[in-house]
Design goal:
The protein is an alpha/beta fold and 364 residues long. It has two domains: 2-7 and 14-33 and 332-363; 42-239, no CATH class. Helices cover 22% and strands 24% of the residues. The protein is built from three helices and 22 strands. The protein has helices spanning 2-30, 94-111, 330-363, and strands at residues 47-51, 54-58, 62-63, 66-69, 74-76, 82-83, 89-91, 117-118, 126-129, 131-134, 141-143, 146-150, 159-163, 167-169, 174-178, 186-190, 194-196, 201-208, 212-214, 219-226, 231-234, 237-239. The radius of gyration is 38 Å and the shape is elongated.
């Protein structure tokens, strides 16, 4: 009896393990980064810094993009701050007003995106793929160390971070991108104010409802766009965010080589005789044309050889030289693998039950 029970338990364990493996395999093949559309910035994308009330700079800050302010009243600290051409400085004019309008639309868009995942309040030491993220209850976000954003090989991957409160990065903190992630596709929707710590390296577009403070010696690969408040700079560098896209696949068709032209050597030069006087024309009788044997049809097969019909156009190619067929997508491969594992589980269970019956017979 003991042998019988042990065998039955072993068979049940094998079946359970096989089913668990199948489920894990299916989940592993279907999991992927969320597909998130980008946030359109429209004309606000022309600006490295855009303020609502004021823009204030200390030291030789460099902006690789335009500088704008609406409704104002004023920008101070440029110079010594520098706006690199072809960037412009737009102060309380129509261009800055339109940029603020487009910023508002982008802010509302980013704030309204549904969440894909909730992170910790401190984003340090996380590696995230594309999606929409927020901290607990969309509270304040911080960054005290490195944050890595993984594009997973897709340069169109979009990252959106939402907070109804503040965004504060620590001194020396970093945001870095891997596997094709692009700086222009990172967005920070901040419901209050943002502060970037001294000497930090930041990536993305800050869309702040109120103000943005960039402390001393910060490198920003992106934009600081404030809707209602001030933007404050201190010896900082703004670079235009990278924005590569995936190139469309190209198909190259090579034409087969044509026949080679043969150049004939020049023939003898014809000499024109001067007209002769008093030449009597001679009539030459017509000669019958020689019979010409007709050529056999081009597509006729030689005697003794049976012509084989051409294969249908939709027949699948065979042989080592045939072009490869399209592989199943990842999800299809996962399902196929799951079916195989399930079959294996059923087989193992059947063997275990048969072994159990045999052991019972031997026990009796």
């Amino acid at each position: 009896m003991t042998t019988h029970v042990a065998v039955r338990r072993t068979g049940a364990t094998l079946v359970a393990l096989a089913i668990m493996g199948a489920l894990l395999l299916l989940v592993g093949n279907t999991a992927s980064a969320a597909i998130v559309p980008t946030v359109p910035l429209a004309t606000s994308a022309n600006y490295a810094v855009l303020g609502g009330s004021t823009v204030t700079n200390t030291g030789p800050s460099i902006l690789d993009g335009s500088l704008g302010l609406w409704p104002g009243p004023s920008i101070t600290g440029f110079p010594p701050g520098l706006v690199l051409p072809p960037g412009t400085t737009d102060v309380t004019n129509a261009a800055a007003q339109q940029a603020q309008s487009d910023l508002t639309a982008a802010y509302v868009d980013a704030a309204g995106r549904p969440l894909d995942a909730t992170t910790t309040a401190d984003l340090a030491n996380l590696t995230l793929q594309g999606g929409v993220y927020a901290g607990p209850s969309k509270g304040a976000l911080g960054l005290t160390g490195p944050l890595v954003l993984d594009g997973a090989g897709n340069p169109s991957t979009v990252f959106i971070f939402q907070t109804n409160s503040t965004l504060i990065t620590g001194s020396g903190s970093t945001v870095s991108l891997i596997n094709g992630a692009q700086e222009c596709n990172v967005f920070w929707q901040v419901g209050s104010s943002a502060t970037l710590g001294t000497g930090s390296v930041f990536v993305g577009n800050i869309l702040a409802l109120t103000s943005i403070t960039v402390e001393n010696g910060v490198t920003v690969h992106g934009r600081a766009l404030a809707r209602n408040g001030a933007v404050t700079l201190d010896n900082d560098v703004f670079t235009e965010p990278s924005c590569a896209t995936a190139p469309p696949p190209t198909t190259t068709t090579t034409a087969p080589p044509g026949p080679t032209a043969t150049t004939l050597p020049p023939g003898p030069t014809a000499t024109t005789a001067p007209p002769a006087d008093n030449v009597t024309p001679v009539d030459i009788p017509d000669q019958p044309a020689s019979p010409v044997n007709p050529a056999p049809p081009v597509d006729a097969a030689p005697p003794g050889i049976t012509e084989q019909p051409a294969p249908p156009a939709d027949s699948p190619p065979t042989g080592e030289d045939s072009p490869p067929y399209t592989r199943l997508p990842r999800t299809g491969r996962g399902i196929a693998a799951t079916v195989l594992v399930a079959v294996f589980a059923i087989t193992v269970g059947a063997v275990a039950v048969r072994f159990s019956k045999a052991a019972t017979v031997r026990k009796r």
